[in-house]
Specification:
The chain has 715 residues and is an alpha+beta fold. The protein is 19% helix and 30% strand. The protein has 12 helices and 39 strands. The strands form 8 sheets. Strands 6, 7, 8, 9, 12, 13, 15, 16, 20 and 21 form a 10-stranded antiparallel beta sheet that branches. It has an 8-stranded parallel barrel with strand order 22-23-24-27-28-29-30-31, surrounded by 5 helices. Helix 4 packs parallel to helix 5, helix 7 packs parallel to helix 8 and helix 10 runs parallel beside helix 11. The radius of gyration is 26 Å and the shape is globular. It starts with a strand and ends with a strand. The chain binds alpha-D-galactopyranose. The site of alpha-D-galactopyranose has 11 residues, from loops.
C-alpha cells in the first residue's frame, strides 16, 4: 500500500512486514525518513540543524543542508559533497546537477520496460517527478512495491525536455541513506572457478564498494550487497539487501561518515558509462531490488528468492519441474559426433535422465576453442544428417534435447569474421585483446544482433529441442563500436548490454517453450538481469563438490535454488577414484537444479543403480527447491554446509548436510519448521518441529565427509 499524508507531506510505502517513508520538505526536496519494520517509523530522522561548513540553501535557511540531511536522491555539486547518485553534464559545460521535486503520481502495477529486464507485476508504484532547471531534464524516480515479497524496486527515467544535448554521467537510481548503526557489509566475491563466496567486513568510515568493469556482472563480484547489523545472525537482527537487475558493468558503494551516517548507492558503473541525451530523448536506468529483514539473513534471502521466482524469472518456467540432464562437456569437450551422442542418449535414458545437452562443438568448424564462433550452422562432419534428424533420434529414444550456443562471440577464423571484421567491439586505432581465443561481437550495432538471431533461428527452426545453454566466455575490453559517433563511444558497454537483452528477448520469443540456461565461463553472469530470460544459470565451471559448497552457499544468499544449475561430474581434475564418492557429489548438487556430466557409458552396475536412485530421490524433493523457503542453520562450524528447505506450508522439508571440516557433530539445531508438528522420513525416522530453534536431527558420519539428506513430511 502506498499512502500520501498531505498534512505532513509524507509518503509511506508499506509491504507485508516493512515500511519505507519519505517526506517533501520546503516543497522542493525529498528527504528520506525511514526504511525498516512496519509501524516503527518515527519520522524525526530529518531534523534540520545548523552544521558549520555544510553548504546550505540560503532561501530556505542556514539549518537546511543537502550535505547533512538524508535524501532520496542526491545530485552532483549542489551542496551534497558526499558520493552522489546523479550527475548530468550540462550544455554549459559544468556538471552541477540539482533536480527539484515537482509532483508525484501513484498508480496500480508498474510500467513495463521493453528494453531492460525488470520485475514483472508489482502492486503499486510511486513516481516522484523532479526537474533540473539548468539542464531542462525531467527525472522520474520510481518505487514499485511487492507487498508479499517485502521488496521495493527502484529505477529512474530521464527525459531531456530542453533544446540542448546533455550527458548523463552518473545514474545510480537506488540510494538509501541510513541514519546510523553498526553494520557489516556482505558481498559475493570471487573469481573464475570460485564465484560468489560470501565476504563480510565491518562498514568503516569512508567508502567501500563492489563493481564490475568487465562487461558482464562477472566472476569477481556480483551485483548484490547486504548490510547487516553486526549482531545479526541467520535468524535474528536487522539486514538490508540490494540486488541490481543488470548483467553488465555496475557499481555499489557504501559511504559511512565520521558521525556514523550511511549511504548506499547502486547503479551503472560511472567509470565506463556516460550517455548523450539529446533534446526529446529519454533514458531508463536498470532497476534495483531492495529488501529489509528484521529476522536475520535467512528472511532477507527468502524475500529475494520469492521476488526472483515470482517476479523476475519467466513465469512459464519459474516453478515448473526442470529436466535432469546429461551434458556432454566434461566427458567429451569438443570430441563428439552424432554416434557418440546417441550412445550417451541411450544410456541416459536407461538411467532415467530427461535430456541430453549437446554442449560446445556442434556448429561451424568448431573442433577446439579457436574456431567456429559466429558460424551458427550445423557441423556436417559431426552431424552428417543434420540437427533435425539427430533430434528425431534423440526423441525416439525418449529423451529431450538441449543445445549450447554462445551468440555474443566470434572466432577470428570464422566465416563471419572474414565477411564482417568491423562487427567486433574495438576502440578506434587499437587492437582488440583476445579472451579464450575469441573476440566479442558489437551488439551496439542492431544489424549484428539481427544477423545472429536470424542465423540461429534458421539453424534451429525445424529442430525439436527443449533447452538452450547460453554461454558468454570472455569479458569485454577495448569496448568501442564502429557504428557510434565519437560523443557516444562511452555508451558502448551499456548499448552492448541492451543489444544482448534484445537478443535474449528475440530468441526467447522465437522459442517460447524452450528452457534457457545462462552461463558465462561458469558463473560469470549470474544475476537477476539474466534470470529474467534464463530461469537457471550454470553456477561455476568448478564442479569439484568440496569447492562447490561455498560457491553454492553464497549463491543461495541472493538467488533461489531453482536459479542454480549444479551437476554431478567426473572431470579431468575431479576423478571418481580420487575424490568424494557419487553420493557426496549428488548431495552437493541437490542445492540446485540437478544434472550429470561424466562418461555414463563407462559406469559399473553399482554406479548405474546409484544414479537411478539419486534421480528418484531428487525428483521427490525438487518441488521444495522450486518453491520452498531456504534456511541456513545458525552456528555452522568451519567446513560445515547445511541447506534446509522448508515448504511454504511447513508440511515437509529437506535438509542437505555436508561436513568437510575436522569437527564432527551428531546433532544440528534446525529452524523454520512447524513447532507443533512431527515429521517423518521414508525410513520411519522422526523429528519434532517443536522448538523452532532447537529441533535436533541426527547427523550421520560417513567416510571422509559427513553427508545427509533428510527428507521429512508432517505425519
Ligand atoms: C564454458 C562453460 C562450460 C562449457 C564450455 C564450452 O566454460 O562454463 O560449461 O559449456 O564453456 O566451451
Amino acid at each position: 500500500m502506498i499512502i500520501f499524508d498531505d498534512k505532513n507531506k509524507t509518503f509511506r510505502l508499506k509491504t507485508r512486514n516493512t515500511e519505507y517513508a519519505m517526506r517533501i520538505v520546503h516543497e522542493k526536496y525529498v528527504v528520506h525518513l525511514y526504511y525498516g519494520g512496519k509501524n516503527h517509523c518515527r519520522g524525526d530522522a530529518c531534523k534540520e540543524k545548523i552544521v558549520d561548513f555544510a553548504p546550505y540553501i540560503a532561501e530556505v535557511g542556514e539549518s537546511f543542508s543537502l550535505d547533512t540531511i538524508p535524501t532520496e536522491l542526491s545530485f552532483f555539486d549542489s551542496g551534497d559533497t558526499k558520493d552522489v547518485a546523479v550527475k548530468i553534464k550540462n550544455a554549459n559545460g559544468d556538471a552541477t546537477t540539482l533536480f527539484y521535486y515537482k509532483t508525484y503520481r501513484v498508480f496500480e502495477g508498474r510500467e513495463e520496460l521493453k528494453d531492460l529486464p525488470h520485475s514483472r507485476g508489482g502492486d503499486q508504484t510511486l513516481e516522484l517527478i523532479y526537474f533540473d532547471e539548468v539542464s531542462a531534464c525531467v527525472l522520474r524516480s520510481y518505487y514499485t512495491i511487492f507487498e508479499e515479497c517485502d521488496t521495493i524496486v527502484r529505477y529512474a527515467k530521464f527525459e531531456n525536455s530542453g533544446k540542448n544535448t546533455v550527458y548523463i554521467e552518473q545514474a545510480s537510481a537506488c540510494q538509501l541513506d541510513i541514519a546510523g548503526g553498526d553494520y557489516s557489509l556482505v558481498t559475493l566475491a570471487g573469481d573464475y572457478c570460485c564465484e560468489r563466496n560470501i565476504a563480510e567486513s565491518p562498514v568503516h568510515v569512508g567508502i567501500q564498494g563492489i563493481y564490475s568493469k568487465r562487461g558482464h556482472s562477472s566472476h569477481r563480484s556480483n551485483p548484490f550487497l547486504a548490510l547487516k547489523e553486526k549482531s545479526a545472525s541467520e535468524n535474528k537482527g536487522e539486514a538490508y539487501a540490494f540486488e541490481f537487475v543488470y548483467s553488465g558493468d555496475f557499481e555499489a558503494r557504501v559511504e559511512k561518515s565520521f558521525s556514523g551516517k550511511l549511504r548506499v548507492l547502486m547503479g551503472l558503473n560511472r567509470d565506463t558509462f556516460s550517455w548523450c541525451l539529446e533534446s526529446g530523448e529519454t533514458f531508463y536506468t536498470p532497476e534495483t531490488i531492495l529488501t529489509y529483514s528484521a529476522e536475520g539473513m535467512n528472511k532477507l534471502s527468502q524475500n529475494l528468492h520469492d521476488h526472483i521466482r515470482g517476479h523476475i524469472m519467466p513465469p512459464r518456467f519459474a516453478y515448473a519441474e526442470r529436466p535432469v540432464v546429461i551434458n556432454t562437456w566434461e566427458a567429451m569437450h569438443f570430441n563428439f559426433d552424432e554416434s557418440k551422442a546417441l550412445q550417451y542418449a541411450l544410456r541416459a535414458k536407461s538411467l532415467d535422465m530427461d535430456m541430453i545437452v549437446i554442449d560446445d562443438g556442434w556448429y561451424g568448424n568448431r573442433c577446439n576453442d579457436a574456431s567456429g564462433l559466429g558460424d551458427w550452422y550445423v557441423n556436417r562432419k559431426k552431424f552428417t544428417e543434420g540437427l533435425a534428424a539427430f533430434s528425431e533420434k534423440v526423441h525416439a529414444i525418449g529423451l529431450k534435447l538441449g543445445i549450447w550456443i554462445e551468440p555474443e562471440m566470434i572466432s577470428p577464423n570464422s566465416d563471419l569474421y572474414k565477411k564482417h571484421p568491423d562487427w567486433v567491439l574495438c576502440s578506434r586505432g587499437r587492437k582488440a585483446s583476445f579472451g579464450r581465443k575469441q573476440l566479442v561481437l558489437d551488439l551496439a550495432n542492431d544489424e549484428v544482433v539481427d544477423y545472429i538471431v536470424n542465423a540461429l533461428k534458421r539453424t534451429l527452426f525445424g529442430v525439436k529441442f527443449e533447452y538452450i545453454k547460453w554461454d558468454f566466455n570472455r569479458c569485454l575490453s577495448e569496448a568501442g563500436s564502429a557504428v557510434l559517433p565519437a560523443e557516444r563511444q562511452s555508451e558502448t558497454k551499456h548499448r552492448f548490454m541492451l543489444g544482448s537483452y534484445r537478443m535474449h528477448r528475440l530468441l526467447t520469443e522465437a522459442f517460447p517453450d524452450v528452457l534457457f540456461e545462462g552461463c558465462s565461463g561458469g558463473g560469470g553472469r549470474f544475476d537477476a538481469g539474466m534470470l529474467y530470460y534464463c530461469p537457471q544459470i550454470w553456477a561455476s565451471d568448478n564442479t569439484d563438490p568440496v569447492c562447490r559448497l561455498p560457491i553454492q552457499k553464497g549463491t543461495l544468499l541472493a538467488y533461489p535454488p531453482s536459479a542454480l544449475s549444479a551437476h554431478v561430474t567426473v572431470t579431468r581434475y575431479n576423478k571418481l577414484e580420487t575424490s568424494p564418492d557419487l553420493s557426496f557429489r549428488f548431495n552437493v548438487a541437490c542445492d540446485g537444479i540437478l544434472g550429470y556430466e561424466m562418461d555414463i557409458t563407462r559406469l559399473d552396475a553399482g554406479q548405474e543403480t546409484q544414479i537411478r536412485d539419486q534421480i528418484v530421490r531428487y525428483k521427490a524433493i525438487q518441488h521444495l527447491l522450486l518453491g520452498g523457503d531456504v534456511y541456513i542453520p545458525s552456528d555452522l562450524q568451519n567446513g560445515e554446509y547445511a541447506t534446509l528447505i522448508v515448504a511454504k506450508d511447513k508440511s515437509e522439508f529437506v535438509l542437505l548436510y555436508r561436513n568437510t571440516g575436522a569437527e564432527k557433530r551428531d546433532r544440528l539445531p534446525l529452524c523454520g519448521l512447524k513447532p507443533s508438528a512431527e515429521y517423518e522420513d521414508a525410513a520411519g525416522n522422526r523429528i519434532k518441529g517443536d522448538s523452532l530453534e532447537f529441533s535436533n536431527v541426527c547427523i550421520q558420519n560417513k567416510s571422509d565427509y559427513s553427508f545427509l539428506i533428510f527428507y521429512g513430511k508432517i505425519i
